[in-house]
Structures are given as structure tokens and as C-alpha cells.
Amino acid sequence: NNHSSDSRGALIVLEGLDRCGKTSQSSRLVSYLEGLGHAVESWRFPDRTTNVGQMISSYLANKSHLDDHTVHLLFSANRWEKRSLMESKLKSGTTLIIDRYSYSGVAFSSAKGLDMEWCKAPEVGLLAPDLVLYLEISPEKAAERGGYGEERYEQLEFQEKVSQSYKTLSESSWKIIDATLPIEDVEKQLRENVLDCLTVCQKGKPLSELWL
Ligand code: TMP
User: Fold this and answer.
1) In this structure, are residues 175 and 132 in contact, taking their beta carbons and an 8 Å threshold?
2) Residue from 17, 49, 60 whose mutation best tests the ligand 1 pocket (most atoms within 8 A of CB)
3) 128 and 79 Cβ atoms separated by less than 8 Å
4) DSSP conformation letters of 28-65
5) CB-based contacts of 125: which residues, under 8 Å, 6+ apart?
6) Residue 189: which residues within 8 A CB-CB, separation 6 or more?
7) Less CB within 10 Å around the terminal CB: N or C of the chain?
8) Contacts of 121 (CB under 8 A, 6+ apart)
């Protein structure tokens, strides 16, 4: 491979409604990039392995109750606690494929009725993704996919609101992928976009911070 050792890794984020296929696509993407010889890791938020992540996990499982603002700040804190590791990984040349990021934070909390600007504020200063891949699916189609699980947000009515929030939040730089296409077609589009992004990062695109 031709990526030089001094070039940084790319920060690539997958977003979308629950059941859009992000999780399986992100693992396919990581295997693909590994096969090409790239240093790459798969991350996800919430990261349930930390103390903060365990509070979030218990909340999502309806085992604890938290005020909406409080849980919003926990999700954000969960990203902040990984920020320095994220930066050092990227600087040492590792590409990160992240399943959900600040956009989930804002989309889900604002779908509960919290003010969008208030929701964005604690995300300011986190690393900005080099690429956001949005797997687009209607809430109805997502719900048909084997049904939702037991978690707090996995309800059609709420996912409709999340979908609206994502629309408000989306930026022209996002790559919108039709998540209802066959898995291989989605995968192909993701690969193409990611390879383009890696090229841009290798050419020296600087890391930047939210909120852009
Ligand atoms: P997961 O299913 O991808 O593990 O995410 C768990 C739920 O948490 C999912 O419904 C999306 C939601 N979420 C937020 O509400 N705020 C956030 O900041 C993140 C990362 C996820």
C-alpha cells in the first residue's frame, strides 16, 4: 500500500435510525480496509464499557430513570472521555470507523423536545468527522426489519421524530446512502466514499473540531 506512515487516519462516522444496518456495515467496512492493509479500528457510541457508558446502558434498558438533559450530557461525556485516545489514534495513522457520534446525540435528544442548539453545545470541541455516512431508511421500513428490541428509543413514533431531527441536522457534506438497497450495494457505496475520504486525509487535510 501507498499510505505513508506519517499521514493521519480518517475519522469516519456512520449515522442513521435504529435498524438502518450501520452496525453490520461498519464491521464489513473495517474488514475491507484491513484487507487493503490500512490500520483501522471499529468504535461505537455509546461506549458501554466505561462507568459513564454503564449509566447510559442501564438507562437505555429502562433499568434507571434520568432527566433528559442529564442523559444527554452523559452521552456527550462518553464521547469526551474518549477524545484524547481518538486524537492519538488518528495522529498515529489509525482510521476510526465510528458507529454513531454527536449527530446521534443531538438527533435523539432533540427528538425528545430539547432545544437543538442546547444539545449541540456540549459537543463543541470534540473532533469533527472527516466523513459522515448517513444510512437513510424510513422509520416504517426500519421497524419491519425484525422488529425493535426492548431498548428505550426503539419505538416507531419516536424514530419518526429522530428522523426529522436528522433532516434538520444534516449538512451538504454528508453522504446519504439508501439503506434499503441490497447489502452489497450499500457496502459498495460506503467503500467508494471511504476510499475517497482516506485519499483526502492522506493528502494532509487537517483534523478539525465540532461544531462545523
Ligand atoms: P446503539 O443501539 O447504537 O448502541 O445506541 C443506543 C441508543 O442510544 C440508540 O437508540 C441511539 C441512542 N443514542 C443517543 O440517544 N445519544 C447518543 O449520543 C448516542 C451515541 C446514541
Assistant:
1) yes
2) 60
3) no
4) HHHHHHHHTT--EEEEESS-TTSHHHHHHHHHHTTSS-
5) 209, 210
6) 175, 177, 181
7) N
8) none
The reply to whether ipTM tops 0.90 is: yes
User: What is the CB neighbour count within 10 angstroms for residue 138?
Assistant: 14
Tens of pLDDT, residues 128-181: 999 999 999 999 999 999 778 889 999 999 999 999 999 999 999 999 999 999
Is 123 close to ligand 1, i.e. is its CB under 6 Å away?
Answer: no
Which one-letter DSSP state was computed for residue 100?
Answer: S
Contact 11, 169 (CB under 8 A): no
41-96: per-residue pLDDT in tens?
A: 999 999 999 999 999 999 999 999 999 999 999 999 999 999 999 999 999 999 99
Bridge partners of 209? Answer: 127
Q: List 62's β-bridge partners, or say none.
A: none
* Helices assigned H by DSSP within the chain: 22-35, 51-60, 68-80, 83-91, 102-111, 116-120, 139-144, 156-169, 183-202
Site to substitute for ligand 1 among 78, 104, 148, most atoms within 8 A of C-beta: 104
Atom 18 in ligand 1: residue holding the nearest Cα: 105
Q: Tell me how far the alpha carbon of residue 5 lies from the centroid of ligand 1, in angstroms.
A: 34
